[in-house]
Amino acid sequence: MRRLVLVLAAAAACDPHSAGAPQDAYVVLDAPAHAGAGRGGGLLDELRFAVVGDTRPTNLDDTAHYPTDIVLRIWNDVLLETPTPQFAVTTGDYMFASSKTGSEVDPQLDLYLGARLAFPGWIYPAMGNHECTGDTDSNCGPGNIDGETPNYIEFMRRMLEPIGVTSPYYVERFAAKDGSWSAKFVFMAANAWNNAQAAWFDRALGDPTTYTFVVRHEPHDAESAPGVDPSQAIMARHPLTMLLVGHTHTYEHVPAYRELIVGNGGAPLTSAFNFGYVIIARQDGGTLQVTSYDFASHAIVDQFQVNPDGTLVQ
User: Fold this and answer.
1) How many domains does the chain have?
2) Which domain holds residue 207?
């Protein structure tokens, strides 16, 4: 159960004689009180997580060629990181299955979720366009033009319900056990967009935290996705540390939009970057170090640091 946490250290912050780590200047709203990542977020010793995205096969309904071996190896690599990430976020497209027949949705999710078991930590998934109809401009969910397709229904049932989420858009809130920082992960669904999500998104981004991550499937230039342009406009009104996306099957950092594309999780690649994943870790001074890894060689292919406000550390 969630409760209002005035930063564990709220009482200490009011005590001029208290000692310990510097206290976060923000209020942690509605953060779960349990230790470690879990439903709704949690209280952590450090902020360190993995990002993996786009794991679908190349062709429609080609379950026989699902990239299971690649997905399994990536999650094994994530597990073997030192220290092990406390949780992971995924950027969408776990299937390439016909939304008309629905016959390959569960077989493909069986393969994905089976491979994902290599990492036993909590994993928070974003919805992709392939969790609707497969078209970038598709819009699923009750009352939307494409309705509730088999892809959408099984994504909700098998990937979101187990983590206690009943909507394709949701928030996970984390805070340091010593009260020194807070973070929110705002998962939005650009392919389940409506006025209710827009109002929710604006409110969610308004909660003050040290770090704000938005997790969305499509990048800023995938303008045909119903929720991309509207959500970009909403984000422009709020603090943002980083926008984590996929859709384009590559790795790319786009500083102008504070955007990190992690779409090289097994889907057919669209650039010279190999399959891989990203680790984001908070440093002692409060900056975040972003490291992209090649899954085969485990070589670092890119590394940089950002401040809590999303600006690059020079």
Assistant:
1) 1
2) 10-306
